[in-house]
Amino acid sequence: MDLPKKRTAAGVLFRAVDRRVLLVEPSYKPNWEIPGGIVEADESPWAGAARELREELGSERPVGRLLVVDHVHAYDGRPDGMIFVFDGGVVTDADVAAFSFADGEILSAGLYTPAEVRTLGKPLLADRLEAAVEAAQEGIVVLCEHGKRVR
Q1: How far lies 52's CA from each of 16, 67, 75, 76, 122, in Å?
Q2: Is residue 42 classed exposed, middle or buried when 0-12, 13-18 and 19+ CB atoms within 10 A define those classes?
Q3: Is 86 helix (H, G, I), strand (E, B) or coil?
Q4: Residue 78's pLDDT is what?
Q5: Topology classification of domain 7-149
Q6: pLDDT value at position 75?
Q7: What is the C-alpha end-to-end distance of the chain, expressed in Å?
Q8: DSSP 60-78
Q9: Which of 140, 145, 143 is nearest to 124 (CA)?
């Protein structure tokens, strides 16, 4: 019997005290993202998030608590998946300026308002990040369905 396969991705939410969030500009696609990516085989989501921080930002910052679990429907030819967002904590503009983009995967990073996130990223990401910011403020884990908070 073949078991169903889901893609799994993990990212890290960094936020400023004024509700701006960190977005990175990938070199390989037009829409901006939070630091993170696909979880590899036999890798936990939290280990995948930490690996992505090292690869994308040159950062050894610890991955914090889980903020969001989002079930994303199949779209754009991709199978459905589970997205995990972990807390990266509060950062300043100086912290962001200290990140390094050694492998060329990331072109730049910055702190952006919720409105700017909707312009730079996909609506799905913007919805998920709003839920993640709420989860961080409320001290809870939020469940989402295709970016929209359900619990």
Answers
A1: 20, 17, 23, 23, 20
A2: exposed
A3: strand
A4: 86
A5: Nucleoside Triphosphate Pyrophosphohydrolase (3.90.79)
A6: 85
A7: 33
A8: -PPP--EEEEEEE--BTTB
A9: 145
